[in-house]
Amino acid sequence: MKLTVDKLAQLRDELQAQKAAREGEARAQVTVHMGTCGISAGAREVMNALLDALRERQITDVRVTTSGCAGLCSSEPMATVQIRDAAPVKYVDLSASKIIRVLDEHVLGGQVVKEFALAVGSERIA
Q1: In this structure, are strands 79-83 and 28-33 parallel, antiparallel, or unpaired?
Q2: Closest CA to 30 of 93, 78, 74
Q3: CA-CA distance, 109 to 94, in Å (whole number)?
Q4: CA-CA distances (angstroms) from residue 111 to 34, 72, 103?
Q5: Whole-prediction pTM value?
Q6: Beta partners for 29?
Q7: Rounded Cα–Cα distance for residues 78 and 63 (Å)
Q8: Cα first-last separation, the chain
Q9: What does the pLDDT look like over 53-96, one tens digit per residue?
Q10: Which residues on adjacent β-strands are paired with residue 119?
Q11: 71's torsion region: left (phi>0), alpha (psi -120 to 50) or beta?
């Protein structure tokens, strides 16, 4: 395949949008747990669906990050949603369609998707 100036510009724009989703100013952050267990369970598809939805909808104030295993391999794929000034919510047994529901209902709509939620709050050592 021969690269054209237009194709290079398109690739640049796509990469810049992905970078903004990972590093930009955010009102919310979604962390997709991408340990080996998560990847083998479908975390990459969950991540791609989320990034595609953000790009298609031109949502730029939701940061997407990754982390390693969250310690519950049997519940992967998992993601943690953190909305500014609210407790984080850990979601389990996700799929591409489920993460879109989490995006629509929780990240954008403010309502936890209880059907997929494992826990609310952070782990702390007393």
Answers
A1: antiparallel
A2: 78
A3: 18
A4: 25, 24, 10
A5: 0.77
A6: 63, 82
A7: 16
A8: 57
A9: 999 999 988 999 999 888 888 999 999 999 988 899 999 999 99
A10: 90
A11: left
In a domain, 86, yes or no: yes
Smallest Cα–Cα separation from 49: which of 86, 7, 89, 104? 104
C-beta separation of 113 from 106 below 8 A: yes
Residue type, 19: K
Q: Is residue 125 in a domain?
A: no
How far apart, in whole angstroms, are the C-alpha atoms of residue 117 and residue 119? 6
pLDDT digits (tens, 9 = 90+) for 2-51: 778 787 777 777 776 666 555 656 789 999 999 999 999 999 999 999 99
Q: Structural domain of residue 57, as residue ranges?
A: 5-120
CATH number for the domain harbouring residue 14: 3.40.30.10
Question: What is the torsion angle, in degrees rounded to the nearest 10, for the CA atoms of residue 122, residue 31, residue 80 and residue 37?
Answer: -100
Query: Considering the domain boundaries, does residue 90 fall inside one?
Result: yes
User: What is the number of structural domains in the chain?
Assistant: 1
